[in-house]
Structures are given as structure tokens and as C-alpha cells.
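Team,

Forwarding the record for the chain on the shared tracking sheet. I've put the sequence and predicted structure together so nobody has to dig through attachments.
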Amino acid sequence: MQHDELFNLIKRIKSISDIGLLYCNNEYDKERYSDLLQISYELLHKITGKEITLLKNLYLQNTDYPTAKVDVRGLLIKDNKILLVKESTDNKWALPGGWADIGFSPKEVIVKEYKEETGLEVITERLLAVFDKKFHPHPPQPFYVYKMVFYCRAISTTLTKGFDITDVNYFDVENLPELSEDRILKSQVELVFQKASMPGTDTYFD
């Protein structure tokens, strides 16, 4: 079994444990689901090398049915080049965006993230792709993630890097810098660039 397949199975075990603890109505089931949850953390520790205490702190206690996290990104093209931001956390490049915020629609998230990360005001025009990270060779991550990528149009021109961004620049799709692969892959950038270049094509989804 491949490493990423094992990692996804462990996340499923954790999800089943969380659901069981949320809905169980007797001490016997509670004990069994608690044991299963602890096993999932121990397996995650073996896969990631991170301490169990740290792994537990990554997850909020579930008070409702656990669901996938949503990462929202935006593609902006100028003179046939793609706008990327350099992330301060790993010093690598990605499409502007981030986790979906409660209280904001996906389109509103992109508008907010673009303003914060690049200084640009944008309009989101169409959804290019919905990726399930399970189907793409991203580095292992504790959460189960869907990634939405929107096509954006700039209505301002001045680039200003955000507080957690070290650089903002345009790149040729054939000559991309080192990408932050937890956030976006070269194959995904190429796919959404192709979609953006072909108006009227269907949204890609896994």
C-alpha cells in the first residue's frame, strides 16, 4: 500500500471515531470509539513523526458531523502569465488563496484573499476546478481537503504583498518557480490555466 493511501485510511479511521463519539449513547461505545481515536493518533504519529499532543492540537473537538476542509484559490492571468504569491511559511509559490472562512462565500473568500495577499481588487468570474487532494500527489496532511480554484479578473493594478507573503509576481506557465505543493501542484496550475484559456469549457472536478 502506498504511503498516501495509508494516510487517507488513517484519516477515515479518525473520522469514524469522531462520528462515533459524537453520536454514541452508552459508555461501552464511548470507550471503544475513544480507543479507536487514540489508535488513529498513534498511526498518524508513526506516519508524520509529529508528537501525539501536537496532532491532537491540530484538530478542534468535534461538536457536529466532521466534514472536509475547503481551500479556495484564484487564478489571475495577465499577458498570458499567472500571478503567484511567495508564502512566508515555506518560501515557495502558490496561487493566492487559503482556507474558506465561515461567513464568506467562496467568491468572497477569493476577493478578500487577493486583497490581503496581493493588494489587487478582483472579480471572480467562474469556477475552474474542484480538486480532492486525495487524488493528487500532495504531501501528507492531517486534514481531508477539497480545493476550489476560481478564474479571477483584476480591477486594480498595484501589487502589494501581504504580511504573510514575501513576494508577488507573474510567471509563464512553462517556467513556474518552486511551488508550495501542499497548496498547489504544477499539474493543477497547468490544468486550470488551460481551462481559463478555453471559455465555455466545463469545470473540472474529481
